[in-house]
Amino acid sequence: MRPESLYPLFAPMTALPGVGPRLAPLVEKITGPHVVDMLWHLPYGLVDRRFMPKVAEAPAGRIATLRVQVDQHLPSTSSRRPYRVICSDDSGTLTLVFFHAKGDWLDRLLPVGSERIVSGMVENFNDGPQMTHPDHVVPSAQLAEVMTIEPVYPLTAGLPGKIVVKAAKAALERTPQLPEWIDPTFLQRQAWPSWRTALQCVHAPTGEADLSPVSPARQRLAYDEMLANQLALGLVRASLRKLAGRSIVGDGRLRRKIVDSLPFQLTGAQQRSLVEIERDMVAPSRMLRLLQGDVGSGKTVVALLAMAAAVECGCQAALMAPTEILARQHLATLQGAAETAGLRLALLTGRDKGKARGKILEALAAGEIDILIGTHALFQDGVVFRDLALAVIDEQHRFGVHQRLDLAAKGQAIDMLVMTATPIPRTLMLTAYGDMDVSRLDEKPPGRRPIDTRVLPLARLDEVVEGVRRAIGAGAKVYWICPLVEESEKIDLAAAAERHAELTTLLGSRVGLVHGKMKGAEKDAAMAAFAADGLDLLVATTVIEVGVNVPEATVMVIEHAERFGLAQLHQLRGRIGRSDRASTCLLLYGSPLSENAKARLNILRDSEDGFQIAEEDLRLRGAGELLGTRQSGLPEFRLADLTQHGDLLATARNDARLILETDPDLQKPRGQALRTLLYLFERDAVVKTLRSG
After folding, report:
1. Within 243-297, where are the H helices?
2. What global pTM score does this model have?
3. Contact at 8 Å (CB) between 529 and 403?
């Protein structure tokens, strides 16, 4: 149960003054559904309303608070003309301007003859000062309420700033004093305020310094959030370790056959990762390991050898991929080496229906399939393994945790190996995959040549098309990636279809098109034609980003490269350079290009190290955007900014580890306070795990 002290913070947003049924959806859109979400919605700027000159001395372009007498109302004579209210003090006249305002409302707000305090931006119009829609109009007695430093919050269309300021103030008033969860010595050393004081500092800034991410109050709140994250991951990990596993000890015969059949030597990184995976599989607890490898680093071979170890013990293994294209590709990649060793492989996707599907499921339940490769179809009802011991999940961030658990439920005490080709910076590794052990493949297989990456303006498109024509003439295959249009797949498709039509006119009929809205069979047919001899050029949206393997493809053109994340560009580029032939990647940008965008494209031009690129991307863009808007799986931090607070993350991780070593059930006084912290950041599920033991 959530502690009673937090009840006021988990009331609905409508409990705050000014947030009625009409505005609640707008507030919730930018904050979240509960009062506590308003506390996490931090201001990004401030307005100083303490400047109070005479009317004649109020400079244009500055916010001022003025004491005036209301002299006259000049209602608008047409809908296009504003309503004006003439005011003055002993130094001169000020005009207040209102568009689309109701006269009776303005009569009540500004009665003629009354004294009023008005605050807002002063403008100069017809040689006189005016104020359009003042931010504040109040009686003189309320001067002190207006003459403050006011926080400025991120808003959404239709939501007045005043409402958010008022709601944040009310949320602070509901905030209880909570027992301290940070180690007192550490708190003192950092010179951080208490939790409640920190919230007051950030929501009632007294100057620009209070808005800085490195101010003591902001650092304190960021640390709280990161500590909750690390503690939650640590508890999940500890509960996994408690679960009985099974010791998988193969005799190595199948793995030896596979290694002997490979046309290349395993890299040092592959050998090291295999030792780590084998150690986990032999151990009596369950394996939960992340295999992180750059594009083309040989993750699939490592996965095959791990799965072979399970089969050596008479068990089965499964490999789950996020798309059908990728599942089929895994089958094609693994088939040769697997069959050499006598491993029986099968593929199951959503497309398998009727008798064909029934046949696969029958063979699976009878133990006649050693390794089943497939998509989400693997964890559907009706898919029964005889004895599943190892599940490999490719591109982890495309699946939710519950899907991981659904697959784990298909066997007893299953070992889990999760793979990703998305290079993830070390700080994000701690926040997203802290419940896993990590192996890294940081070497390219021998024989791969570097990719020549060039950055060009879109204005040179005609030259690029001619270059592509020459490359095709010399036997190259070419990817042409169409621009990403934020949040609109329809526009993406239009752009891709248009480019496909143009290139077909210019280069002939051997130009194909692949996009996310195509049916699986159409997509596979286009990819197969490109991989075989049917197509020379493939126009695609980012659907080809993950996993598709066409070694003959040696040229890639990416339009509007500045719209993509660096990690995503690196993934796309990884589709070429998959043989010993020279490859070229052209990054075309739209002008003008910002300094930040130029720096990002240059990083990609100068480096092929996915991990280095990911670190740079994090530094330049921040964690929220790192994987692109269309990929999920990383925790969204509200208070912590990993580019600013990355050093605190390692401290939070060590702190969480120490806490769980000395108080694994969080029973001691600090442990009890930390339970409140977990509830505060809505890690309730973890606390329930703790209770159920």
Report:
1. 253-261, 268-282
2. 0.69
3. no
